[in-house]
Design brief:
Strand content: 25-35%
Number of helices: 6
Oligomer: single chain
Number of strands: 16
Radius of gyration: 21 Å
Distance between the termini: 6 Å
Shape: globular
């Protein structure tokens, strides 16, 4: 079935976080809200402190008496201001959003909070010098920009990337495995959008480069932030001929096969990464629910 739609909103796209953009430049309001503010502490590996399956937020006053120049403002939850800071000394039970997002009890609010924190902190780590003049930059606008010594202001960057489900118009889908992935783990093909390139041409180019297959009937499905470190995943579906030979050109993909809808449904029943009942008995393992890839595959599989 070639005209399927997403059956649900991808996990990291469900954010209900109020970003309160108007407060970013209001130093007095931010200072006043600091006394009751909550803080996400995140180490350089993207890990946060959890209590069982629940994300732990600290009191902002545990960091400093006033808004810290090292912290970034994420938004508000009612009257509570929310901030994040890089802290490589956090201890206790730690979890990583990318690896454990499927097992954490993430509300739409928490998913938005953490994905924003990761994206912002990752950008700050990589933007310590100005792209315009090479001088050191300092955090400004409550963490939503950095300013160089010469006064040049830069804003957080995101890297657009496409991710595409390739189908035959019927009951088969082409899935691929990167060389760094475990045996049996397959997913959709993806790649970054190049300068001067539209999304549809990117889909065509990336699929051709990675598996040597020509695609047509390219359709947009939906998007998801992917802050690892700062991507935005744009989901597509496209048609291809299963009789066209699969060839690997850029060395990233080592294996790709056409799977039937029944095989995909069996793999989905096995759980994320095959961790559920029956996971060891399937030759196909699929990504967890933290990724838009899972949502796209589930939507296609259910569209029989």
């Amino acid at each position: 079935m070639s005209d399927f739609q997403l059956s649900g909103v991808p996990l990291l796209s469900r954010s209900t976080l109020d970003r309160a953009e108007d407060l970013r430049t209001d130093e007095q309001a931010l200072k006043a809200g600091w006394e009751r503010a909550k803080l996400v502490r995140m180490n350089k590996r993207g890990q946060i402190r959890v209590d069982g399956h629940v994300v732990v937020l600290d009191e902002a006053l545990s960091l400093s008496a006033e808004p810290s120049p090292k912290a970034v403002f994420l938004g508000i939850d009612g009257d509570t201001h929310l901030w994040a800071v890089r802290d490589n000394d956090i201890e206790g039970e730690l979890a990583d959003l990318r690896a454990a997002g499927a097992t954490l009890e993430l509300s739409d609010f928490s998913a938005g909070l953490l994905s924003t924190a990761i994206a912002l902190l990752n950008w700050h780590d990589r933007a310590r010098f100005s792209a315009a003049d090479g001088t050191p930059t300092t955090l400004s606008n409550a963490g939503w920009s950095r300013t160089s010594e010469s006064g040049y202001e830069e804003f957080p960057r995101i890297d657009p990337a496409i991710i595409c489900l390739i189908h035959d118009g019927g009951d088969r889908v082409l899935l691929a495995r990167q060389h760094t992935w475990p045996e049996g783990l397959f997913s959709l093909l993806a790649g970054f959008v190049e300068a001067g390139e539209c999304l549809e041409r990117c889909v065509e180019r990336e699929i051709k480069e990675e598996v040597g297959v020509d695609v047509s009937d390219i359709r947009y499905l939906g998007s998801q932030p992917w802050p690892f470190p700062r991507s935005l995943m744009l989901g597509f579906a496209a048609h291809a001929d299963p009789e066209q030979p699969v060839r690997f050109h850029d060395g990233e993909i080592v294996e790709a096969h056409w799977f039937t809808r029944a095989e995909v449904q069996t793999a989905l029943e096995a759980g994320a990464w095959g961790t559920g009942d029956g996971g060891a008995n399937t030759r196909l393992l699929l990504p967890g629910s933290i990724s838009i890839a899972r949502t796209i595959v589930e939507s296609w599989a259910a569209a029989a």
